[in-house]
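S1.2 Input.
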Amino acid sequence: MKKQHHSFVYRNGLSIVFLSILLIFLIAQAYTGWLQFNKELEEKGMQEIAFGPYLSSPHFLEATFENWESEFLQMGMYVILTVMLRQWGSAESKPLDKKEPVDREPKPGKDAPWPVNKGGWWLKIYKHSLSLAFFFLFIISFTLHFIGSRGTYNLDQVAQNQPPATALEYIGNSKFWFESFQNWQSEFLAVAAIIILSIFLRQWGSPESKPVDAPHSETGK
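S1.3 Output.
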């Protein structure tokens, strides 16, 4: 059978659309956040800033990375927990009683990724590279959220003629952890929702759903 040659857009349509939506919403967030931040600065009797400098301001860092950290934490935990745990009837779970292709030990081959052919530590790391990448991105986002959150907190402190908080002091601040927990809980709610709803509901044509005529008891896609 002759192999079909698809266009770049067809082969990468899902990532292109999601990255485009991300860019649109990120620009919209940056612009509206800039307006809001300047309003807050004006209320504090402080000088407004231009749009360019706003992109490296604590306000933008805090607003952006407190959300990104929760996304990466959610996906990292999801990747890890679906290795060990099962959910009866869910399209997001592996079957209850049988192994899947993802459970087999990797074998070298001409089409295998180079770490598989290399073996050793390269293979050991590569076997867990997806979860490692998500947790690495979580740590980066968590750190940038902390920097931004502390920066906005210290702006308020200066406006009230109070001493700014050091990094060590701010790590125990309830404001920072409230920002984190309110996003973390919502992400795990979303994951729980798709795990449970995929037991009983279907979406024709989606790889995140079981076939429309599949029984509720069928576990896995």
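S1.4 Remarks. The chain has a mean pLDDT of 93.
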